Each structure stands twice: as structure tokens, then as C-alpha cells.
Amino acid sequence: MKRKERIELYREKAEQYQARADRDEAKEKVAERKRETRRKILMGAAFQHAVLGGVSSDAVQELISCLSDYITANNDRELLGLAVIHQTENTPHTHIHKNEDKND
């Protein structure tokens, strides 16, 4: 095999390996998003059980307070049974906070 042919073969192999690595990386990102969604569902279910189950504790009240501070979109607040925030000129309209430290 000539040197130029060998170089071309190596380039093709490199492209194939890169494509395989890209596919694997994409699959891992999808899997991580699924794990993150599952974590959120489980945490929400535990929180809902504590709140709706009538657990009366300072910890639950603190969680409700955090939730109230975190959720700022009124349609979401209504869904969760939180007081609606009345917008004023001094109160900017905001939505649910986004996780700023995502690695995507």
C-alpha cells in the first residue's frame, strides 16, 4: 500500500472513530437528561407526599417557602397552589429560574 493510500485510510478511520465518539456522546447526554428528569420526578413526588400528606414540620414549611421564592410564573404558582404574584412597575415579570451551571 502506498503512503498516500495509507494516510487516506487513516483519515477515514479517524472520521469513523470521531463519528462513533459523537454518537456515544449524544447518547450519554440523552441518558443524563433522562436521569435528571427522573430525579426531579422523585424529588417532586417526595415533596408532594410531605406537603399533601399533612406532614407539619418546619422543614416542610421551609421547602414551601423555597418553592414560593423559586416559582415566579403565575400559571405555575396557580398550578402548585401558591399565591399569585401581582406585577407592579417595580416587579419584573420572570419565569422559573434556569439552572445556570448546566454543562450543555
Please characterize this protein's 3D structure.
The protein starts with a helix and ends in a 25-residue tail after the last helix. The chain contains three helices and no strands. The chain has two domains: 55 residues; 40 residues, no CATH class. The chain is elongated, with a radius of gyration of 24 Å. Helix content is 66%, strand content 0%. It is mostly helical and 104 residues long. The mean pLDDT is 85.
- N- to C-terminal distance: 43 Å
Mean pLDDT: 85
Count of structural domains:
2
What is the number of strand segments?
0
What is the H/E order? Answer: HHH
Quickly count the helices.
3
Structural class: mainly alpha
Shape: elongated
Approximately what portion of the residues adopt beta-strand conformation?
Answer: under 5%
The radius of gyration over CA amounts to 24 Å
> Spans with pLDDT under 50 lasting ≥5 residues?
none
Helix proportion: 55-70%
Largest sheet: none
